[in-house]
Amino acid sequence: MSHVTGRVQMLSPCLPCLTCCGTLDADAIRREMQTPDQRAADPYVHGVREPQPAVLSINSTVSSLAMTMVLGAVTPVPVKPRHQTYDGTRGRVREMAVALQPDCVVCSHAGALAKGATWSLPVRPDASGGRWR
Predict the structure, then answer these.
(1) Domain tally for the chain?
(2) How far apart are CA 73 and CA 8, in angstroms?
(3) Tens of pLDDT, residues 35-72
(4) Is 11 among the domain residues?
(5) Edge-first strand listing for the sheet containing 5-9
(6) CB 83 within 8 A of CB 95
């Protein structure tokens, strides 16, 4: 194991979303939405991605950071960061500065924000090739 890390990010209107932060991988999302047959036929899917292990002590640390962040948002506790990373190998917590992307497909007014049912969201196909509802 070379890295021991975690991250906490508050998601809320007027804060950067997971797409603004570059956290979401469009290719990984595309692969996850494919049926097994589509994955097998896709020339861009190479191998199977191994899941990362969950470790109790790291999960506890990151959960504590998240709870402190929530307390800072809803009580007078003076906690300002809304996006933090934890480096367990060095024992450090870092505040991340991420800006809203004005043309974000998810959280900008040019994208899906406040469009409700008028915005077509992708859905995962079911085993028969139909769409889940």
Answers:
(1) 1
(2) 14
(3) 888 877 876 655 656 566 677 888 999 999 999 999 99
(4) yes
(5) 5-9, 83-87, 92-95
(6) yes
Instruction: Identify whether 104 is part of a domain.
Output: no
- Amino acid identity of residue 105, one-letter, is V
Give the global pTM.
0.66
Phi first, then psi: give them for residue 25, nearest 5 degrees.
-105, 110
Q: For 94-133, how does the pLDDT look when each residue is reduced to its tens digit (9 = 90+)? A: 999 888 888 888 888 888 887 877 877 656 556 665 554 4
CA atoms within 13 A on the CB side of 46: 1
What was the pLDDT predicted at 56? 82
Domain hosting 29: range is 5-99
Kindly state the tokens that stand for 67: 């709870």
Q: Where are the alpha helices (DSSP H) in 1-133?
A: 26-33, 36-41, 56-74
Q: Which residue carries 């974000």 as its tokens?
A: 104
Does residue 113 sit within a domain?
A: no
Neighbours of 20 (CB within 10 A): 20
Q: For residue 112, tell me if it sits in a domain.
A: no
For residues 22 and 28, give the distance between their C-alpha atoms in angstroms, rounded to a whole number: 13
